[in-house]
Amino acid sequence: GDTLTFNAQAVEQYHDLLDKLSEQGVDRFSLMCAGFIYPWEYQTTTGLSVPDPNEEYEMYVRFLELQGRAFAMVAEEFPAIRYFEPANEPNIESGAFLHKNGYTAGGTMQSNADYMYTESELAHIIGDLCWYINRGVQGVDKDSRVLLPSLCNYATAPDFLDAVYKAIESKTLPVAQEYSDTDPDNYFQILNWHPYSLVTGEIDSDWVALQKEIYAVAEAHNDGGKPVWYTEMGWTDYRNENNMQTIADRYIKLFDTVRGELPFVETIFIFRLSTLAVQHTSEAEDNFGIVFNPLDEQFPGMPKPAAIAIYRYIHGQDADLTPLYKFAAEKENTTKFG
User: Is the pLDDT of residue 331 over 90?
Assistant: First the structure.
């Protein structure tokens, strides 16, 4: 059967990590699904395939039930985690994070064309995932909150969010339940997208306008009271020092702009804390991070200008920066940026 168990060693590691972070005052832990749970006999080409609701209906329902159970298990085991994100960037153009079985990771748009869901299909799947996971985690703790799966900051993001609301309003969700549920609060309590500045990299008037346009969709569907989280936001510097200083300035512009012009934004997660030094992905992906990884060969554990700028933004321009260098190795070739 579809039995779920924890990896005991991983559970111990996460308890230790959550305890240490909690002791330092961190209180917003969000769990994002980076790989789905499947019925035991279901074979997939990727860990982000979703059974086709039309062609594989029974498997799809079992799949949804499993997601709800898995998230509920996490909520029960880790009470510090109260925020849950069912999927990542479902509207990404490549379909990489949510697609039909048969999709090939690393394939081309053309080769994967038959395994891509339409916008309407994705919206219905997102609705189902959110409803089942919300039922699971709130069955453990009524204070648990589900985040709308993070949307890519495309110009088409408002249309995608509109499709999600229309799916909820269609009286066809959630699947396999006796009654439909048209209340968005029973799907997600927090709106969420990744507001990367994809065209210019700048926090400019066009960027601000898109943020307001996306939120206006929620307002149009009588859901404007919900807070917005940015569960990813940042820039890659490609290890270029000039880029690092530019990014430091952009973070300050981001915070000032959100505080001054986007009152609906409640929380920003910086992507990411440190660079990648062991499991390399790409030059761009590796060099997100406001601190160099402690295993970095050139600048182990060193804060970048962005880390220094953010620290000063919070603690004052004359703040003692010593804590930022706690994990910096003493090496002759290290440089103190900023």
Answer: no
- Band (202; pLDDT cuts 50, 70, 90): very high
Look at residue 19 and give its three-state secondary structure: helix
Query: Mean pLDDT, to the nearest integer, of 141-162?
Result: 98
What's the mean pLDDT in 77-89?
Answer: 98
Helix (H) or strand (E) holding 232, with range, is strand 228-233
For residues 308 and 249, the answer to whether their CB atoms sit within 8 Å is no
Q: Which residues does residue 194 pair with via DSSP β-bridges, in sequence order? A: 152
CB neighbour list of residue 71: distance below 8 Å, 6 or more residues apart: 31, 84, 86, 133, 136, 137
pLDDT score for 338: 56
Give the residue among 142, 105, 128, 108 at the shortest CA–CA distance from 57.
128
Report the relative pairing of strands 145-146 and 151-152 from DSSP bridges: unpaired
Distance CA 128, CA 61 (A): 9
- The verdict on whether omega for the bond into residue 174 sits within 30 degrees of 0, i.e. cis, is yes
Q: What is the pLDDT of residues 93-107, one digit of tens each?
A: 999 999 999 999 999
Sheet hosting strand 191-194, strand order edge to edge: 151-152, 191-194, 228-233, 265-270
**Lookup: tokens for 145:** 């909150």
pLDDT at 130 exceeding the cut of 90: yes
Asked if residues 146 and 187 have their Cβ atoms less than 8 Å apart, the reply is yes
Q: Which of 187, 315, 223 is nearest to 324 (CA)?
A: 315
Cβ contact 33:83 at 8 Å: no
Q: Which residues neighbour 328 within 8 Å (Cβ) at sequence distance 6 or greater?
A: 299, 300, 301, 302, 303, 334
Q: 3-state class of 207 per DSSP?
A: helix
What are the residues whose beta carbons fall under 8 Å from the beta carbon of 27, sequence distance 6 or more? none
Mean pLDDT, rounded, of the chain: 96
Tell me the CA distances in angstroms from 144 to 69, 133, 136, 170, 298, one per residue in order.
Answer: 14, 11, 10, 26, 42
